[in-house]
């Protein structure tokens, strides 16, 4: 018998073993904390950081489920796998929050709150806390790993050197995180969380197709979001 809509199905055909998922979460969290502490990205949040996170999470919800959903209706059905206006808007907003806060935890907390708003106003809380875990420890954690690795200088913010160097860093880091953001939906959700919650057979052909479809757009939007986030941070700090 399930709990709160969680079937708890393990070892479904094609499902990623739960041990692999847990190992990833533990390892990735440990890396984010260790590198954040070593490089300077692990710091206490200030009041203004919480403001940025709260506004960003709310804005991400509004964009993805309201504005993006309306704009997305204009996308031809045959291109919907390649163009996701709502998701790309969320990526943009979360990147900007990361650029403004630049502390490990900003990504995970922003995605946690985004998921809370999504449950509160759209989906309902069935399946929780699995969706909180999914959103926070995939999309959010990828952003926090970027903050930890760069020592809080994500998207070239605070890096000394020429303008071209800063621009290159913003584009490269944005593209890398954008690339990583292509993985959670097909791999983590499609191959583990979905079968774990609802059962069924994992269709790896579909998962691979989705992943290949998502990567180009997410990388391009990631690059643009990295560049935009750098500029927004500079404008806010003026």
Automatic annotation (TrEMBL):
It comes from the Archaea. Keywords: Membrane, Transmembrane, Transmembrane helix. The chain crosses the membrane at residues 20-38, 50-75, 81-101, 108-125, 137-159, 166-184, 204-228. This is Uncharacterized protein. It comes from Candidatus Aramenus sulfurataquae.
């Amino acid at each position: 018998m399930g709990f709160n809509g969680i079937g708890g199905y393990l070892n479904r055909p094609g499902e990623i073993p739960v041990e692999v998922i847990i190992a990833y979460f533990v390892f990735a969290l440990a890396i984010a904390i260790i590198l954040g502490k070593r490089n300077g990205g692990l710091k206490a949040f200030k009041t203004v950081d919480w403001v940025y996170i709260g506004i960003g999470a709310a804005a991400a919800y509004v964009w993805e489920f309201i504005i993006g959903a309306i704009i997305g209706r204009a996308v031809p059905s045959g291109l919907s796998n390649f163009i996701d206006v709502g998701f790309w808007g969320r990526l943009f907003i979360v990147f900007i929050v990361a650029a403004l806060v630049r502390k490990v935890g900003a990504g995970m907390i922003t995605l946690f709150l985004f998921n809370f708003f999504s449950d509160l106003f759209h989906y309902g809380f069935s399946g929780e806390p699995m969706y909180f875990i999914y959103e926070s420890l995939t999309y959010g954690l990828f952003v926090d790993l970027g903050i930890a690795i760069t020592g809080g200088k994500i998207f070239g913010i605070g890096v000394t050197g020429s303008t071209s160097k800063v621009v290159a860093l913003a584009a490269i880091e944005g593209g890398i995180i954008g690339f990583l953001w292509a993985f959670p939906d097909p791999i983590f959700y499609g191959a583990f969380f979905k079968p774990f919650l609802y059962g069924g057979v994992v269709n790896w052909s579909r998962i691979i197709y989705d992943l290949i479809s998502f990567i180009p757009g997410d990388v391009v939007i990631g690059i643009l979001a990295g560049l935009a986030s750098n500029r927004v941070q500079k404008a806010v700090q003026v």
